[in-house]
From TrEMBL:
Protein name per its UniProtKB record: UDP-N-acetylenolpyruvoylglucosamine reductase
Organism: Noviherbaspirillum sedimenti
UniProt catalytic activity: UDP-N-acetyl-alpha-D-muramate + NADP(+) = UDP-N-acetyl-3-O-(1-carboxyvinyl)-alpha-D-glucosamine + NADPH + H(+)
Active site per database record: 168, 242 (proton donor), 338
Cofactors required: FAD
Annotated FAD-binding PCMH-type domain residues: 21-192
Gene Ontology terms: biological process: cell division; cell wall organization; peptidoglycan biosynthetic process; regulation of cell shape
UniProt pathway: Cell wall biogenesis; peptidoglycan biosynthesis
Keywords: Cell cycle, Cell division, Cell shape, Cell wall biogenesis/degradation, Cytoplasm, FAD, Flavoprotein, NADP, Oxidoreductase, Peptidoglycan synthesis
Family: Belongs to the MurB family.
Role summary: Cell wall formation.
GO cellular component: a single term: cytosol
């Protein structure tokens, strides 16, 4: 039996975004099944209202009250749905917690997602920006998604190619933006698992733990330890992780910058361009640990903007724009925000 959707009014979102911004949603519905979403999406009470699909709220900036309906994705369920000679296939509902999915797979001897341990948020949001950390991205173990088209009500399956994953990017941030709701995500986890220790900091952590042949669980533990040391806990200080993406520039521009700034931190890309460390650029602009009113830049990591207490979405936005302007003026490089502005 499907639960009846309860449409709530003037709903406070403070506990549903990791920045802890106190914004109000005109309407709010907890979604516990695909059927419920299909039904409520066509409710006359919600006709004409903008939609916001919400997971854990760890990658959004609420810039003001939301004049529409929030669909809070809370459907649950994780299953092994098949296997073949090379892969085990796991499907997880959109409302599952991402990190709990990672540990669920590891507990069943299925490696592949361990480098992405402890990333906050929901399974359904993970493909939106192709979450990545410590040398891995969601797309490495992605198989397919089931999506609902909010306009037509059609449900379909999209494969990896269709999702057009890129660096913190996918079709869901482009052509399907504000249109598709991810209902569940399927993963292909390799039976012949190999550790991915390409990321220097992770490999050093593993070595420091005396692990010459680490298991997937041990890598997950190492990632969790690094992340806990480096990143602020949203339960303690509001934030959305990295606020800016690392900008990618042509080799010529990087060369010119290197002549002026020999300490510039950059990483070569497959196409000959370079990714610059946005945190370094922000640090050089003098913003690390700085504040503008109640909005601030985290002391240990300049990429992370924080709510020092009572900041509004506009306060965070003003700080972000100031940092962007300063980076552009100093380095001629535009740094783009990573969270979705609502
Ligand atoms: C401390 C901290 C560390 C972080 N570290 C990382 C990191 O290492 N790597 C990384 O990539 N990210 C990181 N993030 C960002 C964030 O955790 C991820 O982007 C995560 O996937 C967001 O999930 P969410 O459920 O909170 O999404 P939300 O913030 O709820 O939503 C984000 C976007 O996805 C859309 N969305 C959510 N669910 C669905 C759905 N089911 N269908 C369609 N659209 C949907 C929303 O509309 C919104 O546009 C970090 C955040 C924090 C706070």
């Amino acid at each position: 039996m499907t639960a009846i959707p309860i449409i709530q009014s003037d709903y406070p979102l403070r506990d549903h975004n990791t920045f802890g911004i106190n914004a109000i949603a005109k309407r709010y519905v907890t979604i516990t099944s695909a059927k419920m979403l299909l039904e409520v999406n066509v409710s006359s009470e919600l006709a004409g209202l903008p939609r916001l699909v919400l997971g854990g709220g760890s990658n959004i900036l609420l810039t003001g009250d939301f004049p529409g309906v929030v669909f809070h994705m809370c459907m649950k369920g994780i299953d092994i749905v098949g296997d073949d000679a090379e892969m085990t296939y796991v499907r997880a509902a959109a409302g599952e917690n991402w990190h709990q999915l990672v540990r669920w797979t590891l507990a069943r001897g299925l490696g592949g997602l361990e480098n992405l341990s402890l990333i906050p948020g929901s399974v359904g949001a993970a493909p939106i920006q192709n979450i990545g950390a410590y040398g891995a991205e969601l797309k490495d173990c992605f198989h397919s998604v089931t999506v609902l088209d909010l306009e037509s009500g059609a449900v379909s399956t999209l494969d990896k190619t269709t999702c057009a994953f890129g660096y913190r990017d996918s079709i869901f941030k482009q052509a399907l933006r504000e249109r598709s709701v991810i209902l569940d995500v399927s993963f292909a986890l390799p039976k012949q698992w190999q550790p991915n220790l390409r990321y220097a900091e992770l490999s050093q952590e593993v070595t420091a733990r005396g692990l010459s042949d680490p298991s997937a669980v041990e890598i997950s533990d190492a990632v969790m330890a690094i992340r806990t040391r480096k990143l602020p806990d949203p339960a303690v200080i509001g934030n959305a992780g990295s606020f800016f993406k690392n900008p990618v520039v042509p080799a010529q521009q990087r060369h010119a910058l290197l002549e002026r700034y020999p300490q510039l931190v950059s990483y070569p890309q497959a196409d000959g361009s370079y990714k610059l460390a946005a945190g370094w650029l922000i640090d050089q602009c003098g913003w690390k640990g700085g504040s503008l009113g109640a909005a601030g830049v985290y002391e240990k990591q300049a990429l992370v903007l924080v709510n020092r207490g009572g900041a509004s979405g506009q306060d965070i936005l003003t700080l972000a724009r100031k940092i962007q302007d300063d980076a552009l003026a100093r380095f001629g490089v535009r740094i783009e925000p990573e969270p979705v502005f609502v």
